[in-house]
C-alpha cells in the first residue's frame, strides 16, 4: 500500500520545483508579441539575467535546453578544426566535450576525475605548453551535476593569465546559477551558459548564453542562424532577440522567478540559503555513513556543489531507495549517472536547488531515513537530527527570527 | 535570516492543503448555471458525498463554513425551547452548544473533558433519566479539532437504543470526514455535518448536512429559507439545491477531490493512510517526550484522531515553536485552543489531514525537531526516526512496493 | 456541426465572466488563517468594499450567495411579526419578499410591474398612511435582474423623509454593484446587500451586507449566530469576521477584483464603461426591432440597467436562440424569468456586467445576429453596426486613444 | 477613455489563443523526467503528432520556434554547397531561403509573388532543366503567414515526379497544421516542419520536424548535435528524444491540445471549422470593400489560407485600425509584413487559427467595424451580417444543432 497521496516532490538535480507563483505567472492569455508589455518585460528579464550572472556583458535567451546552450556557445566561438580544452569533473564536462567534437572542434579533455575539482596548476602548465596559442577556448563546468563537484572559476582565469594565454574561458553554470556564488566579470569568465530549469525555478524550455566584449571580439562567423548570438544582441526588431517567435510564457515565468531571487530574497541570501541546505544534506549523509556504506562523493566540503549532492552507496541500493521513496512516499530522488570507472548503481543524487525551504529538505532526508529502514539498509543513527542542527546553525537560529519579520499575531483562539 | 523560501506548507487542522489538481479544477471559466454540465456534475457530487458519509439518506451542500453547517443542522431539527444534549470533548462540542443556545435551544452539555472520549454509559444513564423524552436531539462531535479526542459513534447510538429513547443523533464530522472511518447508516447517526476544507481538501466555502429518513420525519418547520433542507433535497428547479446561485467553482473542486478519494485511492485506503500518518506523529511525540515536557493530549491511542494531534508542552513553547517553524522553515503549525481548565499556551497542534504523504509529514516532524533545537527546548532523541519507522511499519514496507505499481524505468543515464 | 470549439463565453446576468487574474489569485496554496497576510488582506478587502458601496458604515462578508445576503439583512433588522414594505420591479423584489415572509415578517408588496421603476410618490403616500410607523423597513432592489428595470434610490429616500417616516431603507444591489452608479451614504440607504459573482467578477461564494449607524441602532437581536452582523463587525478575534473559517480563496479573488475596479480602472470609469456597453446593446435591439418582434423590456432608457438587458421576443424564440448560440457558437445567453403576467418564453436576457470589453460584447451581439439568421427569425438590419457606433460614440472615439496610453510600437516587421 | 477592460483577445496569426485547458494542463508540478508518466505521455504525443501530420514517418520535437524547425530541417537534408529550390509566396518562403543561405546552402528562389500560389508547371519545368539532379531539395510553404496565400502541395509532388527528379520535398506547415487540410504521406511530402503556437494552440516553445523514409535515406551527416534528427528518432535513452532535458510542461500542454483536436473534435471537423470561419472573414472583407479600399490580398478563394487572412487597405489605415482595436476594445490584430514591392502599412492581418468559435470571430469582425467607424475609414455596410450568414451557411445551421448534442435543460426559472 502506498502512502504517496499528497503532493509529489522532486529532489532531482533539475528540473527543480517550480514555485506556484511562477506557474501562475505562466498561466495567462497569449500576449501580443509585436508591441506593449512583452517588449518591456523582455528587456527587464535580460537586464536581470545579467545581474544574476554578475556581468555587464551580453545575455542571450535561446528557446532550448542546456544542450542547446552548450552548442550555441561553441558555435559562436569555435570553428570546425579549432582547438579547445575541456576541463572535466564528471559526466557533464565530458558531455560538453562530446558536443564540441560532433561539431568538428578539436577537443582535448583534461579529466580531473569524478570526485575533485579542476586543478588550475595543471591548466596553467598545459597552456604554457601551447606557445602558438592553438587553444582558442577553455570550457569548464562550475558544478558537474553528475559528480556534484564544484570547481573554483577565478583560479582558472588566474592560471590562464599566468600563462599569458589568450584563450577564452567559457563556463557551464547550468547546475549552479542561482544556487552557488558566481561572478562572471569579477572572476574573468568570457562566456557562460545556463538554463532556466534549475536555480531559476522555471519549467525547462529556455537556456542562456552570456558573453563579454572579449568573447564578442573573438567570435567566429556562426554557421547557424539560430545559434548566432550577434543579431540576438543587436536586434533591429524585437523578433531577432529570439530568432523568431519569442517564448512568451517562459518570459513571464522568468520575470517572476527573477523577482523572487533578486528583489524579494536577494542574491546573497539565495546563495547563503543554498549553502545551509547543502550542509544539512552533508550532515545527514555523514551520520548515515557512520553505520553503513553511505558517503559523500566529494570529500572536500570546499569542492561540493550547494545545489546537488552525489552520494555513494552499495551498488543497487540507490535504485532500491529511489524506488521506495517514489512509490511509497511521493519523493523523487536523482538517479546516479555513469562516468568512466563509475558504477551508476552505486550512486544516487539529491537535488537541493531553487525553490526550497527546510520543511521540504528535511522531509526529503527523513523520507530517505524511512526508505533505508524499510529496505533494511545499514546506516548510522541521527541523520535527520544532524541535518536539523545544520539548518539551525546555518541560518535558522532563534536570534535571527526577528529579521524574518515578526508578523503580528491576530489570535484566533476559538476556532480551528 | 530565514530559509523559508520554498513552498509554505500548512500543518494546521484545516483548512488543509489543497491539491494542485483541485486548484486546477477550480481554475476555469464560469459555467452556465441553467443547463448542461454543471447540473449533472452536481448530481454526481451529491451522490458521492453520500458514499463518503456512508449513507443512503440525503446530502445538502450549503455555501457556508462549519458554523453554517452547525446552525443548519440545528435549524432543521430543533425549535427554540426544544431540549438538546451536547456531548463535548473539547472546544468544538462547546461551540456547537453555544450556537444552539444562541438559537434559543435548551442546551444541556455533558462535558467529557479535554483528554478522553464520550462515555456512552453516561449518555444512556442520562437518557433513562428523561422518561418524557424531552431531549429531542443529541449532538456529538466525532473528532474535536481542539483536543484531538475521537469518540466512537456506534456505542452512542447503542446507548440511545438501550435507553429506548427517540432522540435524534447528530454528529459533527467536520474534522474527521475523509480522514477517520465514519459510517453514518451503519453506526446509526441521523444527522451529520461536515465541511469541505479538511478531509475534502477543497478551499473553505461549502459545508454539508446529511440526514436520514428519521431526521426528515422529525424535522421542524425551519424558520430560515436558507437553512431549510427540504427544498434543497426535493427541488423543483436546480437553483433550489443551493437556495439560489450555486457555488460553481467549489463544485468543480469537490468533483475532483471526490474522484481522488473514492475512485483513485479508495476510501478504505484513505482511512488507512491517515491512520499510518497519525501513528507516525504519535511516535515522534512519544520520543520527544522521553526527554522533555512533550506529551500527547490524548493518552489512549484508540481515542485519538487520525486527522489532528494536540500536543502538550511547557506553556509558551508552543507559540515559540510555531513562530520559529513559520518564520524560518515555511511550516505553519496549529495553535492551541483554550478550553475550560486548559491553557492554550501549553498546547500546539499538528494537522495531518487530507492531501498528505510521508514526505510532507516527515518534513513537518523534522522541522519541529529543528525548531526545538533552535529554541533549546528539552526533548528526547530519535523522534523523526521513530516516525519514519511508523511509516514503514504502517504501510510503506518494501514488500508493498509492488502493489504501488512497478513503473517501468526508462533510464536516462546521461543527463541530469 | 458545431463551430463552438473556442472559449465559451457567458453573457448571462451572473455569474459573470471571471477574469483570468482573479482565477490566478485564487489558484494558490491554502494560507494560514491565524496570522499574517490573510488578516491584513481581509481588512483591506472590507475597506475597499465600503469604498465600492460608497459608505462609511460597516461591511460584512458572508460565505453564502445572494439569497444568503437577503436573509442576513432581514434577520438583522426585522423580527417575526414586524412589518416591511417591499418595492418590486420584477422577480427579485418578489423573491426578497418571499424570503421575508418565510422568516415570519409581515411583508407588504408594492408591485410596480415588470417594465418600469419604483414610483417614489406612491412610496411616500403609503408611508404617510402609516402614522404609527408600523413599517420598520422598506426593501427595494436597485436593478431587478429579471426585468432589467433600474430604479432611482435617492428619490425613495427623499420620499421616506418627506413622509417623516423612520423606516429603514434596505437596497438590493446584487445585480448592480460595480456596474451601475450607487452611493449608499449620499443616497441615504441604510442597508445594502450584494454578492461577488456579478459586478465583482468573482466565482459565486460570498455575499455582502453593508449597514450604517441608523441600521445598527435599529438592529434586532438576531436569532441566528451565522447571520448576526454584530460580532462580524466588532470582532474580538479574526474568525468572528466570518463566524468561523474564512473563505480564504475568495478573499484573494476579491482582493484582485477590487484592485481592478478601484485602482486600475477607477470606479467612475467602470460605471461609464457599463453605460456605453449597455447603450450598444440597446442600439442593437432597437435595430432588430425595426424589422421584427424584438423590443427592449424597459422603454425608458433612464430606467434600464447597465448590467443586464431583458429583451422581448415572440414566445419560444428566446429559447431557440439561446440554444443555437450555445450549441453552435459558444455563447450562453440568459433565460427569461417568469413574473406575474409574464411568459418567460417571450424573453431572453443579455448580461453585460463585469469583465467586459467591446470585443466580447460585439461578439455576443453578432452571434445573436447569426443565430437569428440561422433560425429565420424576422429582424431589422444593421444591429451590430448600430452597436459598434454606440461603442464609438460612447467611449471608443479615436480622440480618446491617447488617454489609453500610446504604447510604443517596437515593430516586428518580418515575422508573424 | 478605453473600454478595454475585459479579456484581451489575440487575432494575430500566431501565437494563437491558448485554451484554458491547455494552460491548466501546463499548470502542474515538475514531473520526474527519468521514468513514469512523462515517458508514456511523450510517446503518445509523438504518435498523435504523426496522425495530425498524416504520416507514418518520424516526428521530432525540438525545443525551439519555427525558425528552429526551418534550420533543423535544412541541417538534416542539405550540406553547405548543396543546391535547393525554394518556392516562395510571401515573406516566409523568403525567410526559409534566407536561413538556408546563411547555412551555406546554394538557394535558388522561385518567387510566385505575394498574391497567388506556387505554380507546379513552373516547378516541373525548372526540374526538367536540372538533368544532373543538382537540386537536392525543394522547400515550399503551404501557407505563407505574411500573404495568407495557400498553395496545393500534392501538385508540387506530381510536378517533381513528372520531371522524374529525385529532389526531396520539404513543406512548411507552421501556419497551417491543424487548420488547413494537410496529408503528408498521401500528398508526397518528404519533410514537414511546424510549431506548437498556431493550430496547436500551445504557448510558443516547441517546434516539429516530420520526415519519411526517403528523407531519412537522403539525410546528410548533421553537423549539429542539437538539430541532428537521428538520435532523436532512434533513442537509446529517453533524454535523446530532446537532446537533453525535455520540455516537460509543453508536453503536457500538447497532450491536452492533441486530445482536443484528434479525440474531442476530430481532425476533419477542425478543418471544416477553420474553413467556415475563414469564409466568414472573407465575407466581411468583401462587404467592407464594396464601399472602400478594403480587399483580400488573395483573389482566388481556393488559394486562401483558412488560418490567416491578409487584407489590403489604404496605407496607414491598418496601423490606425490595429491601434484603435488594441487600445479601445481589447483586440490585437496582426501587423502587415513587408515583402518585395509590398508596403506593410497597406496591410493588416486577421489570425483565425486554433481555439476559435463564432463568438470570438464575430467579435473580432464587429470590433473592426467599430474601429473603422471611429476612425472614419470608408467601407461598405453589412460586413458583420455577411460574416454571420457565412457562419450559418457553413456549419451553424439550425438543422445541425441536434448533432451538437441536445443537452437537457434543467430549467432554473426563478433566479438569475
Automatic annotation (TrEMBL), chains A, B, C, D:
Q: Which GO terms describe its molecular function?
A: alanine-glyoxylate transaminase activity; L-serine-glyoxylate transaminase activity; L-serine-pyruvate transaminase activity
Gene Ontology terms: biological process: glycine biosynthetic process, by transamination of glyoxylate
The cofactors required by this protein are:
pyridoxal 5'-phosphate
Show where the Aminotransferase class V domain sits.
43-328
Keyword annotations from UniProtKB, A to Z: Aminotransferase, Pyridoxal phosphate, Pyruvate, Transferase
Residues bearing N6-(pyridoxal phosphate)lysine are 198
Q: EC number(s)?
A: 2.6.1.44, 2.6.1.45, 2.6.1.51
Residue positions annotated to bind substrate are 349
| Any Pfam family the entry gives | Aminotran_5
Q: Which family does it belong to?
A: Belongs to the class-V pyridoxal-phosphate-dependent aminotransferase family.
PANTHER family with a match to the protein in the record: ALANINE--GLYOXYLATE AMINOTRANSFERASE, AMINOTRANSFERASE CLASS V
What protein is this chain from? Alanine-glyoxylate transaminase/serine-glyoxylate transaminase/serine-pyruvate transaminase
The lineage, from the top, is: Bacteria, Pseudomonadati, Pseudomonadota, Alphaproteobacteria, Rhodobacterales
